[in-house]
Design goal:
Layout (H helix, E strand, L loop, with lengths): L8 E5 L4 H12 L3 E5 L8 H10 L5 E2 L6 H11 L3 E4 L6 H6 L1 H21 L4 E7 L23 H18 L5 E7 L1 E3 L18 H9 L6 E4 L11 E2 L1 E3 H17 L5 E7 L5 E2 H12 L5 E4 L14 H7 L7 H17 L2
Parallel strand pairs: 1-2, 1-4, 2-3, 4-5, 5-6, 6-11, 7-10, 8-13
Antiparallel strand pairs: 9-12
Helix pairs in contact: 1-2, 1-8, 3-5, 5-6, 7-11, 9-11
């Protein structure tokens, strides 16, 4: 799609990150003009090169911390976006346990600032990056949006719960913002072009990049934490959603808000595939799709791990007209192509 100067601008905080960068591509494909705000504290500037390769042009990017009130006000004034998609946040669970104040300060202050600035510049539409971590270990599966939230397992997870509460209370107080919090499950995959994908800093905290790095010989072995859970093969169950499907969900959420005639609103929506996969099945599927064996060992259970969680996504289907299309096999193939490109670049 060829964009014109009249394409509505969308501010994408954390737009150089894993989910953010893929959402930038989806926004362009949908006729929007994304504007990235990212201080590159948890991403790489090379992502901008990848976006240029995919889109055939540059994307406006401000290397700004979202807690910088003066800089953010200047961006709002200059760009006049019609909406904001808020990804920017510290996100390492382990680090959040060790440095909780860092996480509360960064993740909550940036949200508060955006909600304060948006009405000042007549920006109404807000999509918040939330998480299925708010459900903890649920008593019943699949979880729906009405499933009670449980105490977070980490300060990072708690910032998502508190963030939802902040938005809800602000809307209840009638600030002129329409907001959707997307509670998504486990994003995986990469763009099929292998130009952008997940770039974990240091040792990966997520399963799929650990699988691909082990397959590539970067990691000696992958540890599967526990094989004695009450699941089909004893390993933990998660809902793995392709990052492109997830990016498209953000665009659909944004369109829904823009079309809405309400002055102020708030809702939460699960974004996932609606089915769970065990850790061992993800490894097995990767091996089948790539022909590469993964060296893994079974270790003891890891403290804080949820046994299984996957979501009921019928609300996303109904409200957003969105559904996940890409299979686990496709996601793993794309993740492997991305890893091979990274390895070839050293």
């Amino acid at each position: 799609m060829t964009l014109t100067g009249n394409s509505p601008k969308i501010l994408v905080t954390g737009g150089a990150g894993f989910i953010g960068s893929h959402t930038v591509v989806s926004l362009v494909n949908a006729g929007f003009e994304p504007v990235i705000v990212d201080d590159f504290s948890n991403s790489e500037r090379s992502v901008l090169d990848g976006l240029r390769a995919i889109l055939g042009r540059d994307v406006t990017c401000y290397p700004v911390n979202c807690n910088d009130a003066a800089a953010m006000a200047d961006i709002f004034k200059k760009e006049t976006p019609v909406g904001v998609i808020h990804f920017a946040a510290h996100k390492a669970v382990g680090e959040s346990v060790a440095k909780p104040l860092k996480y509360y300060r960064n993740n909550l202050d940036s949200l508060l600032l955006l909600l304060e600035l948006m009405p000042q510049y007549n920006i109404r539409n807000f999509v918040f990056s939330s998480s299925c971590t708010v459900y903890g270990q649920p008593e019943h599966l699949p979880v729906t949006e009405e499933t009670p939230r449980l105490p977070a397992q980490s300060p990072y997870g708690n910032t998502k719960s508190i963030g939802e509460d902040i938005i809800r209370d602000a809307v209840h107080a009638q600030i002129p913002v329409k907001a959707l919090a997307l509670r998504y499950f486990n994003p995986i995959g990469a763009h099929p072009s292998a130009q952008i994908g997940e770039l974990p800093l240091g040792v990966p905290a997520n399963l799929v990049p650990f699988i691909t790095q082990t397959a590539a010989g970067i990691r000696a072995s992958l540890t599967v934490y526990g094989d004695d859970y009450n699941t089909p093969d004893g390993t933990c169950v998660r809902d793995y959603i392709d990052v492109i499907d997830l990016a498209d969900a953000h665009v659909q959420a944004l369109k829904k808000l823009i079309e809405s005639q309400e002055n102020s609103s708030y809702d939460v929506i699960n974004i996932g595939t609606g089915r769970g996969e065990t850790v061992l099945n993800v490894i097995k599927t990767f091996e089948q799709e790539t022909g590469v064996k993964v060296n893994y060992t079974i270790g003891p259970r890891r403290a804080g791990d949820v046994e299984q969680v996957y979501g009921d996504v019928s609300k996303a289907n109904r409200v957003l007209g969105w559904t996940a299309h890409r299979s686990l096999a496709e996601s793993l193939r794309d993740a492997w192509q991305w890893q091979k490109k990274l390895s070839s670049q050293g």
